[in-house]
User: Fold this.
Amino acid sequence: MTKQNLQPTYDANFPSTQPMGSVPDDEIDLRELFSVIWKGKWIIIAITFVFAVASVVFAISQPNIYKSEALLSPADAEQGGGGLAALAGQFGGLASMAGINLGGGGGVDKTQMAIEVMKSRQFASEFIQKHQILADLMAAEKWDMQTNTLSYDNESYDSANKQWVREVKPPFKPEPSMQEAYKVFSKIVAVNAAKDTGMVTVSVEHLSPAIAQQWVNWLVQDINTVMKERDVAEAIKSTEFLESKIQQTNVADIRSILYKLVEEQAKTIMFAEVRDEYVFKTIDPALIPEEKAKPKRALICVLGTMLGGMLGVMFVLIRYFVKKED
Assistant:
């Protein structure tokens, strides 16, 4: 057999990969980057200094915000242990037919309902109008600690004549609407329930610590009153319905059950009339805070300085690579 001369062949259509020892053009050289940053250090320092000064000025210009809060305990557990809750298992079907909520039937928890009512637009609007706090909510600009008084934005509110003078475009009016007020109100008022304990915390943030405490107290009082009035109105309406049904039936057993239901409605009305803390019982009342809750001025200065440093580095690198491509 003849020996064939086997030699490697190369196809021009499939060129070999890049030769060993070569460096791709798009590879980043860290030494080059550090060199560029070092050469532009004065630009970075200047930008960082400007941002640091600006953040300090911004932090100092922000007014102190005080936060007052109250710790509440749901009171429905104390009033729902017997009565309608006990009758729910026996006469739940009849009660549903009569349009009465006996509780314990998988409905909305009264505490959770009260929390949602406090977060609602209707409750906020009624609260603002009832206590006449629109100016304190929408136009307050500064609080004087020495005199414990608020000063207002003169471009929005004339405190001497108690008139709104802000300039706005239609459909807005000089006096803020309840929709505008609700947006601000929902940002400074918080109602939270702890999942583990069931305790409810109501808090208010404001320029004036005294106003923050007063609003928390008003919120607790008003939600108890609102929920009380709702239950009393429902009990009265249910009683009227049950009494009409009693007159229409001659069956002794049914009349006995209806009388028990009327009795429970009477207990509900009596309980509401004699107890002020109807839904929430105050465990830890709101106090006038002595220390501000925000702003965190030190954190603002640190973050502003860091942002300036990062922007300075980015500016130096971008300028270098733009010049390099040219």
About this structure: Strands lie at 66-74, 140-144, 149-152, 157-158, 163-164, 189-193, 200-206, 280-284. Residues 32-61+298-325 form one domain. The chain has a mean pLDDT of 82.
